[in-house]
Amino acid sequence: MINDRACTPLARTSYGETMTTSPRPTRESRQEQTREAIRHAAIALFVDHGFDAVAVADIAERAGVSRSTFFRHFPDKADVLFHDDSGSHLLLARAIAGAARSRAPLGDSLRACLEVLHSALLVLADTKAIQAIRYPALEQLIASTPQLQACSLVKERGYTDVMVEALIDQGAEPLIARQAGHVATACYDSGYTEAFHDPEQLSDAVDRAFRRLFALA
């Protein structure tokens, strides 16, 4: 028996036909749409005119929003390019927890910590590669703009801190966790540099960097 209340509601057209009504967008989805509109506008303007020449007012006008709306979503124009970090941090922490499940507690084993981070960073690399393909000019923009390079380095330290804390949560000794976090960051950076002009290869490049490291042992 069909439960009518579980069915998608139908609306009747002027021709007497029925059609499925689209669900109303949620507040969260509208906010995400606004963030994406601002992000698209900012990247287009930065690429066309350079980061320094673009003001927040220019981005807001291009995105069709007010300055106050811009600042509700981003603290400054540089943050537009790095706004996904909180989600990426969560993804990385969960990937570490999953990879460590069969190895925990990690204790003082640097090798075990690095193997966990190897697996987790491949997950992150797949996500970052998708973003790089979606915004092909973004990485070149960051690489050519000193202020954005500085922001990128600060953000990179945030990823290292996430790795360290996640390893400690899995029973790693704090000193070993910090050493592993910095070594893993270097491996990711090596892969990023190798795949800079071909982001589809990022995951493979990061994997090769870790395997070169493990071959030393």
From TrEMBL:
InterPro entries with a match to the protein in the record: Homeodomain-like_sf, HTH-type_TetR-like_transc_reg, HTH_TetR
Gene Ontology BP annotations: negative regulation of DNA-templated transcription
Region (Disordered) location: 1-34
Highest taxon listed in the record's lineage: Bacteria
Ranges of biased composition (kind: Basic and acidic residues): 25-34
Residue ranges that the Swiss-Prot or TrEMBL entry lists as coiled coil: none
Molecular function, one GO term: transcription cis-regulatory region binding
Cross-referenced Gene3D superfamilies: Tetracycline Repressor, domain 2
Segments of skewed composition (Polar residues): 15-24
Key words, A-Z: DNA-binding, Transcription, Transcription regulation
DNA-binding segment(s): 55-74
Record's protein name: Transcriptional regulator, TetR family
Taxonomic source organism: Kibdelosporangium aridum
